[in-house]
Amino acid sequence: MTYIVLDSCIACKYTDCVEVCPVDCFYEGENMLVIHPDECIDCGVCEPECPVDAIRPDTEPGMEPWVEFNRRYSEIWPVILESREPLPDAEVHEDEEGKLEKYFSEKPGEGS
Ligand code: SF4
Ligand code: F3S
After folding, report:
1. Is the pLDDT of residue 50 over 90?
2. Shortest CA distance to 39 belongs to which of 8, 68, 5, 1?
């Protein structure tokens, strides 16, 4: 089992999750984070930290594509170890639908 980041994170990137992860398994894209499924120890402490409820366990139905999405990008984006300011329009995009199609960027983030 692993936890994964869903598209609710896109265009928000609050990074509250990063601070609490005991194994530093968050990786940073330009406008979202992902979790490496093989490094996550399933502790679950990050899930309640996310203001937009973007973090879920892979035991929920329909999560297989998101596990592969998280795996794919965690292998090419840099690790992020410290929280930082959310993206500038994070509040505007909090409850928006279809963020994957509208905003997702494959570019890596800064990492830390
Ligand atoms: Fe890190 Fe635990 Fe969240 Fe996995 S469930 S990403 S180990 S804080
Ligand atoms: Fe994204 Fe939520 Fe973490 S918005 S960066 S998964 S706190």
Report:
1. yes
2. 1
